[in-house]
Amino acid sequence: MTILSWTEISEDKQESLIQLIPEEWRNPSIKEEMINAGFSNTYDYLDTILPKDEVEITSLTMLELIAKIANKTFTSLQVAKAYCHRAALAHQILNCCVEIFFDQAFDDAKRMDEYLAVNGKVSGPLHGVPISLKDQVDLPGFASSIGYVSLAEDKKTKMSLIAIKLKEMGAVFYVKTTVPTAMMSNETESNLVGYTYNSKNINLSSGGSSGGEGSLIGAGASVMGFGTDIGGSIRIPSAFQGLYALKPSTGRISYMDVTNSYCNQESIPSVIGPMARSLEDVEYITKLLVDSECWNIDPKVLPVPWKDFSSLKKEKLTIGLWKDDGLLQLQPPIRRAVEELGEKLEKAGHEVVTVQFPFQNKLIQTLFEVFTADAAKEIIDECARSGEPVVSSVKNLMIASKDKEIISSEEWWNLCGRVYKLKQEFLNYWNVETKKLTKADKAIDCIVGPIYASTSYPRKSRNVLNYTGPYNLCDCSCVVLPVSQVDASIDKVDENFQARSDDDQFVHDFYDPKIFDKMPICVQIVTKKLEEEKGLAIASTIKDLL
């Protein structure tokens, strides 16, 4: 038996993905054609080259799509073909898929159509809806390689519980999407499938680690997808591509049989959540999953039924505005958007106060201590199995682990204790200290603030998780909400900038108004642990205001 080198495995994988695309949808020069036509936005370009009926289908929200399948405006097969076609083209431009199984999707869609024809009703609340999944969501017969060459052929035999529930509701799976090596980077790159680009600007990063999911949805090639988040991995790709999304607290949505790096690290665990082009779609599918009562199967899911916060949409809120973490300054467009949003909220009658965590530096330091507790041994060992080098986007984690030793069990217990202590400090700040800032002596309802210091970045960035990581450590619920876009005419380079650190200087230096013009700007609505419904309701209030 011939043993393939890591480069041969990688080449085979990338070629196999193209071969899984129907021949009539293959176009090796499509990316070049898009750029030559003057487009950098893949969504806009695909709208110009796809059939009108497919553009119509892929422009609908999930809730609109559900209604049109139910009333037979479109068949499930029509919908599946439209999304598979768009995904095939998007992948050839953006490199966003790691598993492609269109034939299986067509078969499932046909079964949905047969069910509707025979029974006169839909099979479930997601009947015929194409749903994309981040690579690590296990499906039988497909690998969950999590960016490693060594796991490229590690086919799974079980289906993740979340996938089981979605399929029971009528969902149609058709692709799994790219992730960075080990999923420990906010830039999606691996030796296995290469680099994933931003759907809104081909010159920029998709973010990570759910970058493939973000690019696919941002290109209009998915109406609903699922990503995971341990330090910003749902929120950063969503922000970079103007999407709506939810990072839930741990225990709200099942992670059972989802492949993971640093598996069973329970101090700051990864969570799974929806990413979409509609806030209502995010809320709808989250409620479906909570109502499915996965706590009867997965002991890590908390038995917390869905709570109705619709009345909150009519109330005046007390909002903490996070404008600067004190360590990493926001690029001009992000700073403007956050400040403008604060002003709009005040004009609408909501009380807005500025929040600042006095323990922010400890939050960031502790987060990275947890992530590097094994001195990157897992990454080093898994890469060594195939002989692949560590990709540049993950080297930041390697640098943070340099000269470190794997910590002892006693040191780990102490570190977990420090995480717990910081959670207490955060909760005290929220419940006690923010009351001192408000007129009514009332703790804030939520925090509204940036997700990243920029709207994206050119290739080869750094892992700077200042505005996302603290909420993973403190196990908050976070909703991603698009609020604005970069305007090159007003978002000029800050001439008075003074760097606080190397990272701060790095973020400042790559900002170019011409390159970033029209990039989406998102904020996150942060609520306390297990307050997903509240965060979604507040996001709806703010969206209506905008």
From TrEMBL:
InterPro entries the UniProt entry points to: Amidase_CS, Amidase_dom, AS_sf
SUPFAM superfamilies reported in the protein's UniProt record: Amidase signature (AS) enzymes (SSF75304)
Entry keyword annotation includes Nucleotide-binding: no
Residues reported in the UniProt entry to bind substrate: 183, 209, 230-233
Keywords associated with the record: Hydrolase
Coiled coil: none
Domain Amidase: 79-534
Keyword Iron assigned: no
EC number: 3.5.1.4
Tree of life domain: Eukaryota
Catalytic reaction equation(s): a monocarboxylic acid amide + H2O = a monocarboxylate + NH4(+)
Residues forming the catalytic site: 134 (charge relay system), 209 (charge relay system), 233 (acyl-ester intermediate)
Pfam families the UniProt entry points to: Amidase (PF01425)
GO molecular function: amidase activity
Similarity annotation: Belongs to the amidase family.
PANTHER family linked: AMIDASE-RELATED, AMIDASE-RELATED-RELATED
Protein name: amidase
